[in-house]
C-alpha cells in the first residue's frame, strides 16, 4: 500500500496508514522560498487556538507512571505571534504540550506556505513542557512509545494539532498591522529549585561548594524573559496585542497521579499575566509562554502538596512577576526592529562531528533514566545498583563513558532500533532586534544553557544582538542534555542524555555557528531536501459517531468540602453522547448568577468569568451508564458574594443543545 501526505489538498493533512504494518510512512518537502520584499517598520499579528482533545488520550511526561486522561482541569492552547520586518517573517508558536514536533513544524509551514510569507526557517514550535498534555504526535517511535503511558503515533490528533495551529498562524498573518515591541528580562527567585543539585555542583564553572556552601541553592536559571508586542490602534495610539514569556521551570507542579489534561504551573502564569494586563489596559492580549533551560529545575512546591493549589501558588506568583516586567517594558517599545531566522537540520546519520567534537553513531538509554527524576523516583528500582542516581560506571570507557547502558550496549540495539531514536536535530536561531532566541529540541540543564548562551554571545559580539535566550524542547522532543561534568554523575538527566557526554559541546558549536550566520545573512535555511517519517500507529482520539442519546442533568449540584491539597467545589453530573461527539476544544460549561430567577448573567469571581476557559471549571468523563455517557463539571473554589443564586450551564456543543441545571446557593 502506498503511503504519503496529501500535500496538494487544502484539507487537514492525514497520512495513509498501512493497515498491515500499522505504520504511517510519509514525507514532506519544504516549499521553495524566494527572498521576501523589504518591509519598513514592524508588522505583527497574534491569534490563539485550543488544543484540548477529548478524554482518552495518553498523557506525556511521566512515561509509564502517567494516567490516560478523563477530562481537563485547565485547557491546552497554542498562542501564535507573527512578526514581519525587513526581509524576514517569523511565527512564534507557544504550545501547552510536552514539546514541539518536527512533524507539526513541517506540516504547519507547508500548510501556510502558499498563503503567507513565513518560511520554514521562521516557524518556531515552542512548548511549556506541561506533563499533563497528550503525547503521540512526536517525530520518533522512541518518544511516542516511552514519553507517555501508552505507545504509538496518533495521526488523527496530529492532524488536529496541525489544523488548529495552521489556522491560528493564517489568522495572525492575515490580521497583521503596524506594531511596536520590546524584549526584556528580570530575575525571579524563590519559586523554583534545582532538583539535581549533586550533578550541578560538579560543574567546573560553579563556585566551589566548600568555599561557597550557599551557591548550590542558587542553582536555577532565574531569568524571566518577556516579549511584549503592542499594535497600532484605530485612534493612532497603542493597544496590547501579544506577550510571550520564556522561563525555566518544569511543568510538574500537579501530581503524577492526576488524570486530567492541564497546563500545570503555566496555566496559572499565563492566566494571571493576561488578567493583570487586561485590568491595567482594558484589553487582554494573546499571552503565551515557552520553556527556558529547565532540565534540572522544578517548581518550588511544598513537600507532599503537589496539585493545583501549589501549581497555582507558583504559577500565579510567576504571572505577577511577568506583569511587572510587562509594564516596565512600555517605555522601550519601538518599531525599528531587525528580524532574522535560521534553521539547520543536523542529520546524525551523516554529520556527527563539528569542530573536532564527535557524537557516537548510536544513542543509548541509561539505567538512571529508568530510576526517574528526583521528585518522581521509581519506587524500589531507584535504590538498586546501576539504577541508583549518582552510581555511574567507574571505568568510563566507550562513547557513552560513565553511563550504564540498559541491557548492555550489545542487547539494547536488538530492542530499540536505531531508526526509532531522534536522528535529525533541529537547531534554530531567531533574531528579534537585539535579542536572539535559540530553539533546541532537548531539555537543557541550567549550566548547559549558560554555556550555549555564552558561546552564542561570543559569536554575536558586534552584531547588534546583545541578549541570547535559550529555549528547550523546541521543534521536537529529543530527551536531555547535561554538561560533561553533570553527565559523569549519571542522575536521571545524564542517563537521558542519549548521545553521551559530548552532546553539550556538540550543540554549543552548532548554535554558535548558526547564530553567526543569521547575524550576517539575516535568513538561513539549511534543511533536508525532504523530511521523512515512519512511525508505529495507534488510534486514541475518540471517534465522533453519535448514538442519539438525549442530553440531561442527573440529580442536583452538590458541594464537596476542601482538603489539605485541594479546594472545595460544586459538582454537576449530566448524561450525554460519547466523548468524541463533543467538541472539547470549544466551550462546554459555564456558571451563571442572578439576584432574581428571571435575570441570569455570567458569574464572575475576582473579576474573572466562571467558565471552562480559565482555571475555575473542570470537566471530566465519568464513564458509561447503560446507553449514555456521564460527565462531571466541577466549579473549584467558588466564592459566593451577596447571597446570589447560581446555576451550571452546558453550552451548545457538538450539535447538543444548551442546558441549565437547577439553581443552587
Describe, in short, the structure shown.
By secondary structure, the protein is of the alpha+beta class. The protein contains twelve helices and 35 strands. It has two domains: 421 residues, no CATH class; 109 residues, Immunoglobulin-like.
- Binned, the helix content reads 10-25%
Question: Tally of extended strands?
Answer: 35
Q: Which segments are poorly predicted (pLDDT under 50) over 5 or more consecutive residues? A: 1-13
Strand content: 25-35%
Strand order of the largest sheet: 8-7-6-3-10-12-13-14
User: What form results from the Cα inertia axes?
Assistant: globular
Tell me the radius of gyration: 24 Å
Distance between the termini: 61 Å
The major β-sheet equals: 8 strands, mixed
Number of helices: 12
Protein described:
With 665 residues, the protein is of the alpha+beta class. The protein has two domains: 42-345 and 420-536, no CATH class; 552-660, Immunoglobulin-like (Sandwich), CATH 2.60.40. Helix content is 20%, strand content 29%. It has an eight-stranded mixed β-sheet. It has a five-stranded antiparallel β-sheet with strand order 5-32-33-27-26, with no helix packed on it. A five-stranded mixed β-sheet has the order 22-20-19-16-24, with helices on one face. Helix 1 crosses helix 3 (155-174) and helix 9 runs parallel beside helix 12 (503-521). The radius of gyration is 24 Å and the shape is globular. The model is unreliable at 1-13 (pLDDT under 50).
